[in-house]
Structure formats: C-alpha cells, structure tokens
Design brief:
The complex is a heterodimer of chains A (270) and B (313). Chain A is of the alpha/beta class. Chain A contains 11 helices and 10 strands. Chain A has 2 domains: 133 residues, Rossmann fold (3-Layer(aba) Sandwich), CATH 3.40.50; 112 residues, Rossmann fold (3-Layer(aba) Sandwich). Chain B has 313 residues and is mainly alpha-helical. Chain B has one domain: Orthogonal Bundle (ABC transporter involved in vitamin B12 uptake, BtuC), CATH 1.10.3470. In chain B, helix 2 packs parallel to helix 7, helix 2 runs antiparallel to helix 11 and helix 13 crosses helix 14. The chains are: A alpha/beta (270), B mainly alpha (313).
C-alpha cells in the first residue's frame, strides 16, 4: 500500500512539467509589482500575465487577471497555483527569499531593480528579452531612457512630499518622487536629505516653506492633518496648497511616468 | 540644595528646548517667531508634562507592585493603545483627533481588563496577578494588532506604528491644554497616597497594621498611574524608559519617602524628556530621531553612574 502510494507520488512528480523554460519566451508570467504588470502590458505581453498582485490596477485589462494577494511577502503557494513559467519580482529582501523558494520547486524567477526613472529602461529590456518582445521593449526603453536622461527644467515652484503626518515623514533625495518633482519643474525642499524618506520636525517644514504639500492620495479632500493646529503653522497648509496625487499614477515608476510628469507640471502651474 | 539643583535643571531644559531647534530663529526674534510660539513652546511644555507624568506613574507603580522593573507601560497599556490606533485606521475613522482618542480608549480597555484580572481571588489587587495580567493582556492586544496590520489592505496601517512610537511631533496648544487640565487629578491622587505608599514598602500586612487601608490605596494608585499613562500615550505615543529609570534615579537621591520622591520624579521626568526631545530634534537636523532612543541614551549612563556611586558609598 505504502509502496503504491510512493510510486504514485513519484509518477506525478515525473509527469509535472518542469517550470524552467527550456528555450523560448515565457508563456505564463506572474508579476509581483504593479510597475512590472504595466511594463508587460506596454510591451504587448499582457496576455501572458496569469497572476498579479492586488495592487496591479493598470491597465484596466489587468484587473481580470487572478490576484495572488498583496505580494508583501509573496504567497508562494498562491503563485505556484497559477502554474507560471516565469515570476517577476522586485529586488528586495523578502522577495529574494521568495525567489529562492520558487527556484527550488523549478519555477524560473527574475529579480529586477526598479526604484528610479533610470531603472525603467533596463527593466523594460529585461522583460522584453524574457517574453520575446525585444523590439517593442526596445522602443519603450528608448523613450523611458530619454525621460530619465532629460535635464530637469529650472524649478519655478517648491514642494514637500508628506508621507505621514505624526511623526512627519517626508521624501528625500534620490527617490522616484523627488525625480518626478524636479522633472515637473518643482524643487523638493527636502532634496538635501540623502534618504528616500526620513522623519523631520514640523518646524523644519515651516522654515523651508514649500509652496505645495504633496500627498499620495486617491481622495479629493485634503488629509486630516490639514485641520490640526500644529500643521497650520505651515504656510502651504494654511493656504490649502495641497497636491493630492493618486497613487496608481504617481506612486510607482512605469510606462506612464511621462504622463505623471506632464500632469504634475500642469497642476503645479495652475 | 538638591531641590534648587533639580529646579534649575528643569527650567534650563525647558529654556533650551524653546531656544534650540532645527530651524534657525535669531535670538532677538525668539519671542515674535511663529515657529517658537506655535511649535516649540507647546512641544517643550508637552514634553515636560508627559515626562513628569510618566516619572510619577512609574514611581507609583513600582511602589504598588514592589518590583523595580515596573514601568508605566508594563501593565498592558501600550498594547491596548496600539490596538486602538490600528483599529482607528482600519475602520477609516477620520478627523484630526481620531488616533489619539482611539489610542486612549484602547489603553483604558486594557487597563479595565488588567484591573479585573487583578481582582481575581477576592477584592485584594494582587501585585503578582497584576503584573502577569498586564503582560498577558499586552501580548494579546499586540497579537490582534499584528493580525489586523498583516491582513488589512491599507499601507497606512504600517504608519500606525510610527504614530505609536511617534513621540512629540503632534504637540500643539490643544494637546498641552488637554494634559494640563487632565493630569493634575491623578497626580494629586498619587501625591495624597504618599504616606500609605511608604508603608506599603514594608509589606501589605505590616502596612495594614500601621493603619493603611491597603486595598483602597492599591486600587487608587493603580487607577491613577494608569490613567496618567493612558493620557500620555494619547498625546505622545509610547515613550519608553522615562517611567522606568527616573523613579530609580529620584529614589537614589531623595530616598524612599514618596512625599518628596513623587515631586522629584515629576521634575526629573519632565526635564529628561524636554532635554531628550531637544536633542532628538537637533542632533541630526533636518532629520529627527525617535525621542525614545534619546531618553534611553541619556538615561542609562546617568542611571549606571548613580547606581555605582550609591552602591560603593
């Protein structure tokens, strides 16, 4: 009885197609970052995406793809259930562990850096090579490279990105949002802080006096802290100069980064 | 002499935290500056009041449970406050005061549960059961909090922890007024219990023989110290260390008489937190350090120094 069971297990294991692609482009892809999902659709490989995170909401066609959860960290079994031959992950700590586990069960994975505008071109090319869409990827990559390489226009206004209000967390130098601001013609007043995000004192925000307070938010009304008395010391808060930026467009680098810059510039000049 | 020194230190700490800050305000404009009036002054006062409250609450609880490791947050209050704050965000309660109020209610709920547990086995608030109950309720609340954070969608939830450990960033005249009106009541209750607290150090039975109404004192001290701590959490999050070490430092200098120990713990706690917050705001400017890090970095060496001096002497 036991032997028959064992034999069965072995047979099933032998019949299971190896996830590792022998040759040729990937046909079943699980994308574990909204930016990768957007890039895959942009290079015409969207029909091969068989799994996404719950955050992948663009393009609208992506919403009909089954979600494998929030991806923080990836749910290995949910990813495997999509029977992918390629899993695309953002290159960060917990994902490296997840990628190793997926490789161990024979699923091909790729870890891609995507933190800044200049990472977009290389990411597009990598995805193009893996999906056999090199030409489309190359033309997208060229456009994205030129976006990243463009010298920023002279700053005509200033902005502070407030991620959280108590304690105040702001966006510093070297982050994607910092790049968006400078490309849109705004100076990030915390551009001297050499960290993607940092805790600062409220009085520093008052002293640096940004013209705009930018908040990643899908809401149309200013954040709750706008009503708090200590925040009224900031001039932009008193003047109601809030930039409420929807996270889907502004919160991630991707093929729509050019749109994000154009929209930000339009709203800043209003 | 001791008192003059302590009061000087306290005044100095308050002055420093108004004069120093990451933004450059010329000394001549100090009294007219918006930054000083609306941000630094309320933050300095809030730091002082919160630090003082934590110092007194810690001293009271250490006497109550007769355990030198007791800390205002040991009895489950930080866990309860954290659960309240996370629930407020998960349920999308908006409004500028939603988080502080929710944290306060969470802390009160934890307080109530621990108090109820402490009464198990008769009407005597058993210190050992109080400690165990506090740790258990705290762990339980922390587990639920973690479950909510890991299951809910909102990335904002992770920020609830930032708020919980946030320190004094949310200081305004509103929060100063709130604490200034609220804290005196439990502070007076604790001070009024000075004499019975002295007796309690001799053991509950001896204290009862010497005329202390032990059960009533224990209930009052527990509730007053916890209510102080709950208010401190609501306006400034969990600030560790002040409530643990300041009472010990005060005890090493002022002895075990609570009539002088409690005021000393108030002034010392206030001075320590005001000074620590000044450092937190300025040393890595324009960035800011979590104030709990600074209270530990200052408090531990001072504590170690005093401990060494007093055990050798």
């Amino acid at each position: 009885m036991l032997r028959r069971l064992l034999l069965g297990v072995l047979l099933v294991a032998a019949c299971r197609p190896s996830g590792r692609p022998a040759v040729g482009p990937s046909q079943r892809i699980v994308s574990l970052l909204p930016s990768f999902t957007e890039l895959l659709f942009a290079i015409g490989a969207g029909d091969r995406v068989v799994g996404r995170t719950q955050w992948c909401d663009y393009p609208p066609a992506a919403l009909s793809i089954p979600s494998v959860g929030d991806g923080l960290p990836p749910n290995i079994e949910a990813v495997m259930a999509r029977r992918p031959d390629l899993v695309v992950l953002y290159n960060a700590g917990p994902n490296v562990t997840a990628a190793k586990q997926l490789e161990r069960v024979g699923i091909h994975t790729v870890l891609i850096d995507l933190n800044r505008l200049e990472d977009l071109g290389p990411a597009a090319r990598t995805l193009g090579r893996l999906t056999g869409r090199e030409e489309q990827a190359e033309s997208l990559a060229i456009a994205l490279d030129s976006l990243a390489g463009r010298p920023p226009p002279p700053a005509t206004t200033s902005v502070a990105f407030v991620v959280w209000d108590n304690p105040p967390i702001i966006i510093g130098h070297g982050s994607y949002l910092d790049q968006l601001a400078s490309q849109a013609g705004a100076r990030n007043v915390f551009g001297d802080v050499a960290a993607p995000s940092a805790q600062v004192s409220l009085e520093t925000i008052v002293a640096r006096d940004p013209r705009w307070i930018a908040v990643l938010s899908d809401s149309a009304v200013p954040p709750a802290f706008a009503k708090r008395r200590e925040w009224r010391a900031v001039r932009a808060v008193r003047d109601g100069h809030f930039l409420l930026l929807p996270g889907s467009l502004f919160g991630r680098p991707g093929p729509r980064s050019g749109d994000a810059i154009r929209q930000l510039r339009a709203r800043l000049s209003r | 002499m001791k008192w003059t020194l302590l009061i000087t230190v306290a005044v100095l700490a308050l002055l420093l935290s108004v004069v120093l800050g990451p933004a450059a305000v010329p000394l001549g404009e100090l009294l007219r500056s918006d930054i000083v009036w609306n941000l630094r002054a309320p933050r300095a006062l809030l730091a002082f009041l919160v630090g003082g409250s934590l110092g007194v609450a810690g001293a009271g609880l250490q006497a109550l449970v007769r355990n030198p490791l007791a800390d205002p947050f040991l009895l489950g209050l930080s866990g309860g406050a954290g659960l309240g704050a996370v629930l407020a965000i998960a349920l999308h309660l908006s409004g500028p005061w939603a988080l502080p109020i929710a944290a306060f209610i969470g802390a009160l709920a934890a307080l109530g549960l621990v108090y109820r547990l402490g009464l198990i086995g008769g009407a005597s608030l058993d210190p050992r059961i109080l400690l165990l109950g506090g740790v258990a309720i705290g762990a339980f609340a922390a587990a639920i909090t973690t479950a909510i954070v890991s299951l809910a969608d909102a990335a904002e939830l992770r920020n609830a922890f930032l708020w919980l450990w946030g320190g004094l960033s949310g200081a305004s005249w509103d929060s100063v007024l709130l604490i200034a009106l609220y804290a005196p009541i439990p502070l007076v209750v604790l001070l009024a219990a000075s004499r019975p607290l002295d007796l309690l150090a001799l053991g509950e039975e001896s204290a009862a023989y010497l005329g202390a109404d032990v059960e009533r004192v224990k209930r009052r001290v527990y509730l007053a110290a916890s209510l102080l701590t709950a208010a401190a959490v609501a306006v400034s999050g969990v600030i560790g260390f002040v409530g643990l070490v300041v009472p010990h430092i005060a005890r090493l200098t002022w002895g075990h008489r609570h009539r002088s120990l409690l005021p000393a713990a108030f002034l010392g706690g206030g001075a320590l937190l005001a000074f620590a917050d000044t450092l937190a705001r300025t040393v890595v400017a324009p960035r800011e350090l979590p104030v709990g890090v600074v209270t530990a970095l200052i408090g531990v060496p001072v504590f170690a120094f005093l401990l060494r001096r007093w055990t050798i002497a």
